[in-house]
Specification:
The protein has one domain. It starts with 5 loop residues before the first helix and ends in a 13-residue tail after the last helix. The longest helix is centred in the last third of the chain and has 32 residues. It is elongated, with a radius of gyration of 19 Å. Helix content is 78%, strand content 0%. With 170 residues, it is mostly helical.
Amino acid sequence: MDDVSAATLRRSLRIDLALCLTLVVQFLLGMVTNLFVKIPDEHPGAHAREYFSGVVAAIGWALPHGPGWVAAHVMLGLLLVVGAVAALITTRRTGIRAHTVLTAVGAFAIVGAGFNGASFVNYGADLSSLLMAALWAIALTSYVVALFLLARRAAEHAGARPEPAALAPR
């Protein structure tokens, strides 16, 4: 773990921070969508008998034909999945087990939130919306804690004091 390069730590820090900020934007897009957009009762994927084909159909409908806010929300969700995979690949190089676990939890939460979002679009169940929000919170929390742990390691790696200034003795 001590042989982790500063460049690897910085790269992982940047990815984690980007995921945190993107998750906040995703939350805001989701709130706008939830409050101001009416999902049509009939669209490809609506009331699908087979869940996964319904998810694919809903995404295929939402991006080119869905309301603009929904399309933006879906597009950012897909980008978050790509970012979560990038974070998983990068975190393995750091060798920091807790960071790897937190990044995996965040990735699974993002994917779970996406599936619940598609479920909400297809079936309109409020529980799907609640689960999407709960999984968003788990993802954000995972990446914030991972960011903190990685920042501590980077500070130790650089020879700096690891605790934040607010916690330093006066």
